[in-house]
Structure prediction request, 178 residues.
Amino acid sequence: MRRDLITDAAIELVATSGMRGLTHRAVDRHAGLPEGSTSAYFRTRKALIEGLVERLAVQEQEEVVLDTDDLAGSLAKTIDSWLVGRNRTLARYAAMLEATHHPELRSILVHSPRERATELARALGHEDPEASGGHIMAFLEGLLFYRLVGGGSTGGPRPGTEESRQDLRRAIEKALRP
Prediction:
């Protein structure tokens, strides 16, 4: 429970201050815990970042529920929820950038989503599900990034609305075709 409180506070800090703002003391303050609490659970900054990344991965896995009868709709709903939960998504991208210097973090962040995308491609009848899974992931990540911080963040539909989900759905339907 306290570990989740600490990693959730770390996620918020990274989203609002970037990786530079992530310190044990800052997490303690943000979580409203006595100084030294974060250090008791995560001795090093690297351990704290690993905890943050693991928490993000668990949350992401819990949120992605694919409805095989309405695949594009369920993916659109998931992506829209990540846009609404902007801070966590920003922290995820910051963690992905950090993972370029720490390969052990990268495997936590990308392994499960890539496996799910490969299974999705297989279910859709793609000839090469491994390659198609990678393409699907690249598309979905690009769509999310575009709507979160790119051009779509200023001119696209407001996240959390039916218009947003329908816009995402149309894009996803086109991308999922074998």
